[in-house]
Amino acid sequence: MLYDVIVSGLGPGGATAAYELALKGLNVLAFDKEKFPRYKPCGGCLSLKVEKVLPFDFKSVIEDIAYGAVFTFKSKRPIPIISQRPIGYNVNRNRFDNLLKEKAKEAGAYIREGERVIGIEECDDYVNVKTSGGSYKAKLLIGADGANSIVAREVLGLNPKICVVAIESELPAHEERLSAIKGRLLIDFGCIPHGYGWVFPKGKNLSVGIAGISDKVKSGIKEYFNGFVGREKNLAGLDISNVYGWTIPYFYDARQRIAKSRVLVVGDAARLVDPFLGEGIYYAIKSGQIAAKIISDRISHDKIDLSQYNEMIAMELYPEFEAAAKLGSLVYNYPRLWYRVLEAEPSLMEKCYNVTRGEESYESFYADIISRIKTKPWRLIIRWLKGHF
Ligand SMILES: Cc1cc2nc3c(=O)[nH]c(=O)nc-3n(C[C@H](O)[C@H](O)[C@H](O)COP(=O)(O)OP(=O)(O)OC[C@H]3O[C@@H](n4cnc5c(N)ncnc54)[C@H](O)[C@@H]3O)c2cc1C
User: Are 287 and 267 in contact (CB under 8 A)?
Assistant: First the structure.
């Protein structure tokens, strides 16, 4: 049998693409190596942009609504910046991803869980996909198989080694501890090179994690995590031994090719993660939708060619990623200076919240920070140097 589309991986990127394509009446077969619901290490904070693009209600799986964050520097000098309006929805990925997968199934996609894609062969008129359970043919293949995507590596030659390394733990916490942090995120700068630590409430659980760029963190991730957890008052006395390591393939190269004739990749497989905050769920969903659109437009052509997906993604997503990369290099290369700026001008963060709400751009947020640094350069630099030495 020849399917229209095979999807490898059913995280937010793959489930969204499968849902959209099945709704359009295409014959879709989707695999995931895991059986759902499955755990995925993740802070699980959805920006409000997700609400704008998902075509169905997901309120039933929201564990906590964040109205702002308490920022700290090495777990000291707290700056609570709480907004009138939400900035994010915290979800457990096992429930959120299961919902998206069920939506794809309801829309008519054939779902095969617990079956891993192990090989891809590109032929003139179809793609042959080998899995742990058999061999399948489709006109087109979507790689949505995450940070270590076999499709991205073997078909498109993307490099998974340039990444952020992360450790996350999800643990139950008592009501008293949860109520101290409910409705807000805790974000700590300075606890790891080129990254940050977090504590996010998720219903009866806390997500505790730390992430930093791999070539700066080197092999020290566990020590940075232990240091962060040890300093953090909100975590005192908790048993945080159940930890998971993972990688985050942040965007760094606008010249990357993420599609060719009959194959394209979405989400983490395509390195579509914001290099400032590490937000990836929205971009996985958005790229799944863009992929579905281009596929449904082209599937009936005599000679199918998906390479225009490269340009569509570049146009829609890369300008924001490029501005986020500039921000990341300012904030994470000079975390003390950044923290001084934030202490002096906490209202700056409202602008960042508007970015996560999809109401402003990273470019304008970056321009605002630079203009504030320029108006008080000597004061800030002197204060920074005093703190630095
Ligand atoms: C510690 C951590 C914290 C994060 N926090 C946030 C956050 O708070 N907010 C946010 O927006 N983003 C966050 N991210 C990023 C976010 O998790 C990812 O960007 C997002 O999950 C990408 O979705 P995806 O569908 O592309 O891939 P994934 O969610 O990784 O899904 C890929 C799927 O493919 C399956 N798969 C893999 N290989 C195969 C194979 N060979 N065959 C079949 N199936 C396969 C996997 O089982 C998985 O289900 C975080 C990431 C990490 C690591």
Answer: yes
User: How far does the centroid of ligand 1 lie from the alpha carbon of residue 145, in Å?
Assistant: 8
Q: Residues 2-44+92-160+252-306: name the CATH superfamily.
A: FAD/NAD(P)-binding domain (3.50.50.60)
130 DSSP β-pair partners: 119, 135
CA 30 to chain centre: 21
What φ, ψ does residue 285 adopt, rounded to 5°? Answer: -65, -50
**Residue whose C-alpha is closest to residue 95's, from 54, 55, 40:** 40
Q: Which CATH superfamily is domain 63-90+164-248 in?
A: D-Amino Acid Oxidase, subunit A, domain 2 (3.30.9.10)
pTM of the model: 0.96
CB 199 within 8 A of CB 232: yes
Helix or strand run (H / E) with residue 88: strand 88-91
**Helices and strands counted in the chain (H then E):** 13, 18
> Range with the lowest mean pLDDT among 16-20, 70-74, 156-160, 313-317?
156-160
Between the CA of 301 and the centroid of ligand 1 the distance, in Å, is 32
What are the residue boundaries of the structural domains of the chain, listed by start?
Answer: 2-44+92-160+252-306, 63-90+164-248, 331-388
Residue-level length of the chain: 389
- Token pair for residue 372? 């504030």
Fold match flag (2-44+92-160+252-306 vs 63-90+164-248)? no
Ligand 1-lining residues (CB < 6 angstroms)? 8-14, 31-34, 40-45, 116-117, 144-146, 150, 166, 168, 209, 211, 246, 248, 267-269, 273, 278-282, 284
Report the alpha-carbon distance of residue 288 to residue 115 in Å, rounded: 21
Query: Given this model, what pLDDT does residue 374 score?
Result: 77
